[in-house]
């Protein structure tokens, strides 16, 4: 028996594999533009179901103005959105236009899958001056070209449970007037303590407060660091303490998690959970965010983003919004962020896609979005419409527009290797909250992060 | 192999002619399976090994980088953490699953032969991994889950089953035990049914009690079956992915970042397919070594029956 | 293993139970207690799924520990079948997206059936080649086949995806089925184990009657293999029905979406909304139901024949 000889037919059976190999080698693995859609249909992807009706209205308006084009909107849930998008780029079956997010967009820029918008005639016709300040820069790549058309913006504010505040005798203005300090917590921590109530009804600032059996926490938390730099959680605090996440606001190449300013902020912040003023890790279901914590009355206030407004407004509990507390530098700062629409390079109708993007940024569409009262659109005039709607519904819009008006906003870190940074920093931040490690452990993480940029 | 003994009784000439005919037939019969094997198993594996020596971001051609990925892997604390976490998971999962499956199989063998019972025991297998994970995510939820409600009744503090560093991996291991134990039990049970009664009767006549006969007779006779069951379940267990992806996503603080999840994240989340391939090769090697050791240790190829 | 053992399995003889005492020895009580505990632990999650599926989400949050559905409604099931309108769905805590249920069911059935039928056929053929035929290198090739068991699924995921794309089968049910359609090492191994124990005498009798080797496969071995065929058939059907990540990657539109992937609709749609637990539980029950029914029909066959019918 010749052990090394495969039967002839099995060798022959390898032919299909050989052919497939050759095919792969020849055509390479980059996506080809095999788009099954006829090219006068613009394939648009988005994840937010609550915005679907607005965009369907916009699509109708667009099709009226552009009878030669149709818009097909597909919605994928957030959990699946990015993996589907990635798979589609590889397969060459992706959308023509999609809703982009700041956390993912640098990755796509470096992979060269986004079409720069500057060269499209329709884009050039968009009045970007009408946008909120700073949005266009957020979506400008390191090469100076624009990769996303801003469509909305958001900032962070403190949402509070009206009933709990009333019972504590706290005026919502006190939230924005209070000040935090890394040493001792400042007047803000006193406020949080006062709002915390233990199982026996003792408040956090009264003697005998049982920090192990707390019924109402002063400040809620469901996530150690958000996507990256604690956008909805502690970014504002760190910024008012003088911290800058990266060496440059946009497209930096060096992270500063070893800065004592952010470390002392984080030590104070997560330290609130030791004192019983903030939930410990895992006490609440993190998948549902902080909304449930404050609406159920388990927590007095939470910091959250403006994109959640509609959800807070529609909850049965009365929730109000106040501007974030001040910090050591005397101001109250918030992250400003926003979504944008991007055109895919491998699209078979880039020009049509650009037209749709331009329409989404136009006054007509933005007004439609504004009237739905779900997000603040990027145009300032449309923002005013939304602000009025929020005010009518009992949610104070100045909590969100305030930082923008007085220029106290800053960007999230927008850099290359975003996914690598996230996968390094998030477990480290979780360690701080879940296992109460000191923030100095971030020094090692910071080295690892900066190493990624050196390679 | 008993087949060859029969052939020895034929003439040598007859044997070689039969061999040739068998060869042609074998080729015909093997072709479809071989195509599937080559195209969808061998080719991706070879390609994966090649890619492990490159830097590849899925959208531009791969670039050869020699052993760089392997060097990175050896110095990557997250990789070693993943290894450790995965091994911890496998030990708890397989240990519990095998023990419980054995007990259930014995109970089914000695207590009752009811098909209904066997059907019930198999039911969790009908539900997919993803669905099982979602259901237990709900049952073990810290706020709304019934498991913690029960704990509260008893007077014990709530446990963050899937959010606590110490509990997360054991919990995931237990979830998968729930899903797979019935199937494993039935496999062992089938093996139990194969055992000849005469050996047991002889033992009973000699005065051996339940425990004695179990350890000295049942276990040794079951060895080949247990060995094969163990090999299969260990291989599957090392590749745990769905459950973790749905429940904890690797957290908290990488406490449940099992190897296949880390590889997936590096490949599809961070577009570093070369590095991911290197780690996959490592996983393949680990599986190969463990299987080989298991095979040897349990002498799975032979049986005490003959 | 000899044929006597195989025959014993067929007859399903009950081993004599050890009854040293009358009925309720402490040993038996303990044994039954354990068995009952096992049954409860096994069935409880199913009950909990049902109870959750029959309520509204606000009701679930208000009464997390009630044993009966807190706010009884069939709403979740209506959402699954796409029968509920958006406003009511949102009122009950759902997301309001529509689900094209019957289409997905059909797709799942098509894919699973295709995979099962083909895999059974091809694997049985290969197993026959490895067990009943004698040819040079047979055992070595078999070892290579079985080595395939150790390849982590992540290894094959991307290359398969790219290959399916090159074949133009993205967003196509055939594309979903292709990688596993031909064989799996486990199936080949399973059948081979069984075939090795088909008595030689029967096969030789057929050969003497003038049946060709190929004929012995179709007329002797296969008919005797109804049990392992049914067993593996069900197992394959179940695992292909429950596959999630591969169909998720390959399908883009409703035309190729399968039921398990459609479940994704009930998980959080956006960072804003919470999970529609009631809808999710209802969907998982509905997705599992065909499997449970199929199992019920074939139960006796499967449960009594699972496993190795002979170990060498």
TrEMBL record, chain C:
Membrane topology note: Multi-pass membrane protein
Membrane among keywords: yes
One GO biological process term: transmembrane transport
Transmembrane feature ranges: 29-50, 109-130, 142-164, 176-195, 216-238, 278-299
InterPro entries, sorted: MetI-like (IPR000515), MetI-like_sf (IPR035906)
ABC transmembrane type-1 domain mapped to chain residues: 105-298
Family: Belongs to the binding-protein-dependent transport system permease family.
Name this polypeptide is given: Carbohydrate ABC transporter permease
Source species of the chain: Glutamicibacter mishrai
């Amino acid at each position: 028996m010749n052990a090394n000889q495969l039967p002839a037919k099995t060798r022959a059976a390898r032919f299909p594999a050989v052919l497939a190999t050759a095919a792969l080698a020849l055509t390479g693995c980059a996506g080809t533009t095999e788009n099954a859609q006829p090219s006068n249909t613009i394939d648009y992807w988005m994840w937010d179901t609550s915005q679907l009706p607005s965009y369907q209205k916009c699509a109708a308006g667009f099709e009226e103005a552009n009878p030669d084009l149709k818009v097909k909107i597909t919605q994928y849930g957030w959990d699946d959105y990015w993996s589907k998008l990635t798979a589609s780029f590889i397969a060459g079956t992706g959308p023509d236009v999609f809703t982009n997010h700041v956390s993912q967009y640098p990755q796509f820029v470096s992979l060269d899958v986004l079409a720069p918008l500057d060269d499209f005639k329709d884009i050039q016709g968009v009045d970007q001056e009408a946008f909120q300040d700073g949005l266009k820069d957020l979506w400008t790549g390191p090469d100076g070209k624009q990769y996303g058309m801003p469509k909305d913006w958001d900032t962070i504010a403190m949402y509070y449970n009206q009933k709990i505040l009333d019972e504590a005798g706290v005026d919502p203005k006190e939230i924005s007037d209070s000040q935090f300090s890394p040493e001792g917590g400042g007047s803000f921590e006193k406020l949080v303590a006062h709002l915390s109530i233990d199982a026996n009804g003792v408040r956090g600032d009264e003697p005998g407060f049982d920090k192990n059996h707390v019924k109402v926490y002063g400040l809620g938390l469901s996530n150690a660091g958000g996507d990256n730099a604690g956008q909805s959680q502690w970014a504002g605090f760190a910024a008012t303490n003088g911290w800058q996440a990266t060496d440059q606001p946009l497209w930096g190449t060096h992270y500063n998690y070893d800065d004592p300013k952010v470390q002392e902020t984080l030590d104070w912040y997560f330290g609130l959970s030791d004192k019983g003023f903030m939930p410990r890790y895992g006490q609440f279901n993190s998948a549902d965010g902080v909304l449930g914590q404050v609406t159920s009355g388990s927590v007095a206030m939470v910091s959250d983003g403006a994109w959640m407004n509609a959800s807070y407004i529609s909850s049965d509990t009365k929730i109000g919004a106040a501007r974030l507390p001040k910090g050591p530098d005397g101001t109250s700062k918030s992250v400003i962020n926003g979504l944008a629409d991007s055109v895919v390079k491998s699209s078979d109708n880039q020009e049509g896609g650009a037209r749709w993007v331009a329409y989404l940024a136009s006054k007509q569409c933005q007004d439609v979005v504004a009237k739905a009262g779900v997000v603040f659109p990027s145009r300032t005039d449309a923002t005013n419409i939304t602000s009025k709607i929020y005010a009518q519904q009992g949610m104070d819009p100045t909590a969100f527009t305030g930082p923008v008006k007085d220029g106290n906003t800053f960007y999230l870190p927008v850099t290359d290797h975003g996914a690598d940074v996230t996968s390094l920093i998030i477990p480290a931040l979780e360690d701080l909250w879940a296992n109460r490690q000191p923030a100095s452990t971030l020094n090692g993480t910071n080295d690892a992060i900066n190493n990624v940029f050196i390679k | 192999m008993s087949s060859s003994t029969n052939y020895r009784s034929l003439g040598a000439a007859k044997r070689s002619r039969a061999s040739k005919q068998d060869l042609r037939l074998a080729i015909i019969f093997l072709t479809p399976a071989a195509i599937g094997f080559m195209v969808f198993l061998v080719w991706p594996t070879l390609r994966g090994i090649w890619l492990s020596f490159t830097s590849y971001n899925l959208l531009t051609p791969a670039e050869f980088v020699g052993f760089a990925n392997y060097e990175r892997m050896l110095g990557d604390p997250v990789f070693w953490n993943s290894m450790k976490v995965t091994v911890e998971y496998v030990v708890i999962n397989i240990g519990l699953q095998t023990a419980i499956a054995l007990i259930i199989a014995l109970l089914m063998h000695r207590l009752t032969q009811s098909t209904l019972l066997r059907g019930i025991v198999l039911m969790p297998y009908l539900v997919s991994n993803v669905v099982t994970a979602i259901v237990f995510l709900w049952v073990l939820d810290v706020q709304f889950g019934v498991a913690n409600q029960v704990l509260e009744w008893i007077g014990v503090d709530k446990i963050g089953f899937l959010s606590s560093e110490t509990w997360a991996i054991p919990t995931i291991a237990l979830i998968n035990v729930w899903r797979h134990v019935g199937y494993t039990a039935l496999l062992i049970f089938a093996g139990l049914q194969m055992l000849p009664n005469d050996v047991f009767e002889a033992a009973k006549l000699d005065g051996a009690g339940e425990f004695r006969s179990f350890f000295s007779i049942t276990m040794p006779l079951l060895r080949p079956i247990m060995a094969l069951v163990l090999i299969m379940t260990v291989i599957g267990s090392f590749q745990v992915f769905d459950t973790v992806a749905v429940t904890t996503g690797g957290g908290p603080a990488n406490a449940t970042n099992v190897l296949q999840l880390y590889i997936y994240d590096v490949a599809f989340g961070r577009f570093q397919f070369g590095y991911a391939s290197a780690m996959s090769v490592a996983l393949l090697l680990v599986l190969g070594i463990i299987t080989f050791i298991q095979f040897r240790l349990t002498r799975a190829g032979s049986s005490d029956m003959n | 293993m000899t044929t006597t053992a195989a025959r014993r399995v067929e007859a399903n003889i009950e081993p004599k139970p050890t009854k040293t005492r009358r009925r309720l020895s402490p040993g038996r009580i303990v044994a039954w207690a354990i068995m009952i505990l096992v049954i409860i632990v096994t069935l409880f999650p199913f009950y909990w799924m049902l109870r959750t599926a029959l309520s509204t989400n606000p009701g679930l949050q208000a009464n997390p520990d009630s044993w009966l559905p807190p706010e009884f409604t069939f709403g979740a099931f209506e959402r699954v079948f796409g029968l509920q309108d958006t406003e009511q769905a949102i009122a009950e805590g759902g997301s309001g997206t529509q689900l094209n249920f019957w289409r997905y069911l059909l797709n799942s059935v098509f894919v699973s059936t295709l995979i099962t039928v083909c895999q059974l056929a091809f694997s049985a053929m290969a197993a026959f080649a490895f067990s009943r035929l004698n040819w040079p290198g047979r055992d070595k090739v078999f070892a290579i086949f079985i080595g395939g068991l150790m390849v982590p699924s992540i290894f094959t995921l991307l290359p398969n995806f790219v290959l399916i794309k090159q074949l133009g089968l993205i967003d196509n049910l055939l594309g979903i089925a292709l990688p596993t359609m031909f064989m799996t090492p486990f199936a080949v191994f399973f059948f081979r184990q069984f075939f090795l124990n088909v008595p030689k005498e029967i096969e030789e009798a057929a050969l003497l009657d003038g049946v060709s080797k190929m004929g012995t496969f179709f007329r002797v071995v296969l008919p005797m293999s109804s049990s392992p065929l049914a067993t593996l058939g069900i197992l394959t059907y179940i695992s292909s029905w429950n596959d999630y990540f591969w169909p998720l990657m390959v399908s883009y539109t409703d035309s190729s979406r399968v039921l398990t992937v459609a479940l994704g609709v009930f998980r959080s749609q956006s960072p804003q909304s919470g999970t529609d637990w009631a809808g999710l539980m209802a969907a998982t029950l509905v997705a599992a139901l065909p499997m449970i029914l199929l199992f019920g029909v074939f139960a006796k066959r499967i449960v009594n024949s699972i496993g190795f019918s002979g170990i060498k």
